[in-house]
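does this look right to u?? zinc ion version
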Amino acid sequence: MALPTENVGSLPRPATLQAALHDYDAGKISRDQLTKEQDAACLDSIERMEATGAPIVSDGEQRASSFATYPLTDTLAGTGLAENLVADGQYFAVFADGHHRQLPRLTGGLFKYRTYAADYVKKAMSMAKKPLKQAVIAPSMLALLYPLDGIVDGYTRDQFLEDLCNECEKDIRGCFAAGAKRVSIDFTEGRLACRKDPNNPWTGRGMLAHFIELNNRVINRFTASERANIGIHTCPGGDCDSTHSADVDYADLLPSMFQMNAGYFLIQLASEKDKERVYKLLGQYSRQDANGVAQVCFIGVINPLNPRVETAEEVRDDLLLASQHIPKERLGSTDDCGFSPFSIDNKPKHGSPDVARDIAFLKITSRVKGTAMASQKLGMG
Ligand SMILES: [Zn+2]
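got this back:
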């Protein structure tokens, strides 16, 4: 068995699609016209990802408003926002370059998704020749829709969390039922929860343990064989070529993170200063037996925030070094993050989203090649 390799999920939306989203928000084009642009971007994403040689592909999240808000709103500007949500919620994150992203705020029950990730999988299945993966959002992120203090009229926090867990479970099961081979849960708020950013109140509330417990409430509803194909993605954020929690020490997050009973983890690492130290932590804290499933560590070997294309040799060498600390049967490779988790992202360091798209496929090609080279070196075919 060769080392597995898998992307996180998103690709930059083409400039034409980003323009179409603005036009749709402005009422200049119809929903059908927007859908046509999204269809074209999904098909292009799948075909080009397949051409890299990747064993598993995604639609690049070209239909999603963002990795976090796809269940809630059609566009980032709030077109199609669910009825019991308003725009003025908590900051999900304040990024190192000063920009921020805000979540909606819940104003009443019952909480329900407007869109499930399975809706994307169904459409992608007819376009893909290779197995598909789908990313979904973690309950721990959407828990932030509920105001940090106080209660929503007629809808307690406990009621909300129960409804939220049910919706997340349904989201994951729907992806598998629609044909996805793998489902990874985006958990970027995990590392941010360790940051205690004075400009972002929830990060100072010590919420990591609550996040882990909440995510396990959903993950533990799946069998061990299902969980082998349910992953967790951790990163310090990746939006407009900037991060939100790269200064948080992984040692603060990883012991808790591996308590989640998921079968695999997609871990930002290419942009870490001291990779070997983190490889050691992964070897130390990932579990051979997480309630019946072995935890596979997919190390980040590609940095989507930097336009420089990593070489296949660099990818190979990262994996070989990691294999000294992580059992090779539980090792794989990934990108540090999605290439554009938010639909509107001008990729400033790349020059434009279209340039960033071209670069993304070159980077994925390097990941695939370098992973095959490492597999061979490790006697894994
Ligand atoms: Zn990420």
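The chain has one domain: 15-377. idk if thats expected tbh
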